Amino acid sequence: MIPPSRNPSRWLASICAMLAIAACTPSSAGTSGSTSDMRVAQGSQDQILLGRQLVLSHACTDCHGGNNNPAAMGWLQGVRSPQDEFKIGPCAVTPGAQPCFTTRPKNLTPDNTTGIGRFSERQIFNALRFGLRPEETPDVEITSTTPGQGNFPANPHYLAPPMPWMAWRHMPDQELWAIAAYLKRGVKPAANKVAESERPPDFWASEMTVEKIGPHPAAAYPTANERVAEGSQEQIARGRFAVISHDCGGCHGGGSDPTAKGWLTGVMSPDQEFKIGPCALQPGAQPCWTTRPKNLTPDNTTGIGRFSERQIFNALRYGLRPEETADVDITSTTPGQGNFPANPHYLAVPMPWQSWRHMSDQDLWAIAAYLKRAVKPVSNKVADSEGPPDFWASEYTIAKIGTHPAASYPFFR
């Protein structure tokens, strides 16, 4: 069903990231008068806060509603209008191509009827670790990852793309349990019935094989695509984990498998490009732009080798294109204030820096270190992505992407 040259994690998982911005739809962006995720949480507050941080920094709300802002309308409520849906399959690149499926991100609030309230935290954990739809998976510990072995379903029904569970399965148990706890106990339930996503008859099973999504755990470092890095090995390992579990390879090549061909080398053929804007939903609609994920290997000419680790950090924290941002400590987040550019040139959609800015400094520096020092350079020139004349500046406002740091989570006594 999916062209074999594609890793489903790339074009299925990341095309939704920032779709609300690309489609210029306000339905997920505005803020309400109170914090949407405000709820009296039972259990460990540290676990709830960790889960909330992970939901923010892994771009859950780019698809499921809220645009990285817990105070936003529709926080984690799923599709609320046809504009929140999107197309997956070859039609995401070539309008009208087949097969073509409509994906509708689900309601992740703990509403018992329309959300995930009817599922246990273990069922949510199993969805994140194994990609199994909770409505068709009992509340049991999964004992295998191979269909038909142990208690893994012989005919698994996987979560609809673009849910990036293939990358998230590499997160530690503690983090996946924390996400489950936050969704079940830290978010207000909201009634919003979302129709099922379209899918092939095998529920994507033919695409979720080890050959196509890589093994779990990931191959040991260094693979043939990596090199022994100078500096702190702990930092390199941390950066590698962040790159894998945040699905960088989903857009930039290789999915969550550092042994894969094209690991982080960017677009190498037209079928790795994709469309953003209203045309992602309705062929021929305007405006319409082509996004081309860049070469993230440290090649000095065609990759990121010519940028410093601080420039890479600034791209991840502030969304500023490294080729147009000096190697300096950014002192503001407001255009024209401090040394923040008056007319910023932001990274092309769908790079989810608006979520990644919520990661810790330590994590972002580790990603920069891994990309600069631990990945083998590969020569691959990628053309610039298309975009509006203002380089997305009018879309990256606090009103649309929320504050950094995110609004505090209130616990009531």
Number of domains: 1
**Percent range for β-strand residues:** under 5%
**What is the mean pLDDT?**
89
Count of DSSP-assigned helices:
14
Query: Strands of the largest sheet, in order across it?
Result: 1-2
The tally of strands reads: 4
Shape verdict:
globular
The helix/strand order is HHHHEEHHHHHHEEHHHH
Class by SSE composition: mainly alpha
Which radius of gyration do the C-alpha atoms yield? 20 Å
**Percent of residues in helices:** 25-40%
Distance between the termini: 52 Å
Largest sheet, in brief, is: 2 strands, antiparallel
- Low-confidence residue ranges: 1-34
Q: What does it look like?
A:
With 413 residues, the protein is an all-alpha fold. It has one domain. 26% of the residues lie in helices and 3% in strands. The chain is built from 14 helices and 4 strands. The chain has helices spanning 8-13, 19-22, 45-57, 60-64, 121-130, 165-168, 173-185, 210-213, 233-245, 248-252, 309-318, 353-356, 361-373, 398-401, and strands spanning 86-88, 101-103, 274-276, 289-291. The strands form 2 sheets. A two-stranded antiparallel sheet has the order 1-2. A two-stranded antiparallel sheet has the order 3-4. Helix 9 crosses helix 13 and helix 11 crosses helix 13. The radius of gyration is 20 Å and the shape is globular. The relative contact order is 0.16.
